[in-house]
Amino acid sequence: MSAAQQTPAPPTATGGAAALRALLARPVPAVMGILNVTPDSFSDGGDFLSPERAREHAARMIADGADIIDIGAESTRPYGSTPVSAAQELQRLRPVLAAVAALGTPVSIDSMKAEVAAWALDNGASIANDVWGLQRDPGMADVVAARGAPVIVMHNRDDADPAIDIVADINAFFERSLAIAARAGIAEANILLDPGIGFGKTPQQSMITLARLDAFAHFGLPVLVGASRKRFISTVSPSEPKERIGGSIAAHLIAVHNGARIIRAHDVAETAQALQVAHAITTSIEDNR
């Protein structure tokens, strides 16, 4: 392992596991607020590039009900994103991460690079969010294991293939990721699964994945879903990304009904309200049976 991988687990990373367990134990699913410090993210690229605006937006999302802030410094949108180096990613993160972490809400680092995840987990982040499920950077699993941090394992593909059984593909991908995690020594209790809505999938496959989310329950791991403002919504109801709040909430309520425990969203206040009301309605039905 590299020196970065061998760094002892700092309190922020190890504390992330306890904080996450507490969130998952609540009856209402947790909300992960999206903070993109990028110029080219599909929905809000360039909106929060300055450290001041990034911190203000994180504070607003927390006030609106975000339980986790997910910071990304490289756009991972499936179409038209520009890959950046680890140095560029870190340059965007350094002025932002400490200030956001100081707000007191758990922070996840949305990166597919082990070097970036290592730095972030040592400097305020407490959760790793890997959009390639430990399968793109061979050092990622060791970084996570060395710090005792929770990791979100997301399904991805280089290209969408409408001919495949997408649910079977996701299951096979997760099996490979979990094998990598086990070899690295990542505790199973620290793993969450994300089926990667919109990533390597046709719009129809994204909707199938949401409808069949319970097909991943056999892993016995919490599921996170991020359908916020995704392109598949526009195939049903033509709209620009910031006009897809209704479709995002509909997709997320379906996801929760089918087992999701964390929802990753741009529109935190609306999402948190929807989750709370849906839970209250469901509970009132159960209480009166």
Automatic annotation (TrEMBL):
Pfam families linked: Pterin_bind (PF00809)
CC per GO annotation: cytosol
PROSITE patterns: DHPS_1 (PS00792), DHPS_2 (PS00793), PTERIN_BINDING (PS50972)
SUPFAM superfamilies named among the record's database cross-references: Dihydropteroate synthetase-like
Recorded catalytic activity of this chain's protein: (7,8-dihydropterin-6-yl)methyl diphosphate + 4-aminobenzoate = 7,8-dihydropteroate + diphosphate
Keyword Magnesium: yes
UniProt pathway annotation: Cofactor biosynthesis; tetrahydrofolate biosynthesis; 7,8-dihydrofolate from 2-amino-4-hydroxy-6-hydroxymethyl-7,8-dihydropteridine diphosphate and 4-aminobenzoate: step 1/2
Cofactor: Mg(2+)
GO terms, molecular function: dihydropteroate synthase activity; metal ion binding
Domain of life: Bacteria
Domain Pterin-binding: 29-276
Keyword line: Folate biosynthesis, Magnesium, Metal-binding, Transferase
PANTHER family associated with the record: FOLATE SYNTHESIS PROTEINS, FOLIC ACID SYNTHESIS PROTEIN FOL1
Entry function: Catalyzes the condensation of para-aminobenzoate (pABA) with 6-hydroxymethyl-7,8-dihydropterin diphosphate (DHPt-PP) to form 7,8-dihydropteroate (H2Pte), the immediate precursor of folate derivatives.
Cited NCBIfam families: DHPS
Protein name according to UniProt: Dihydropteroate synthase
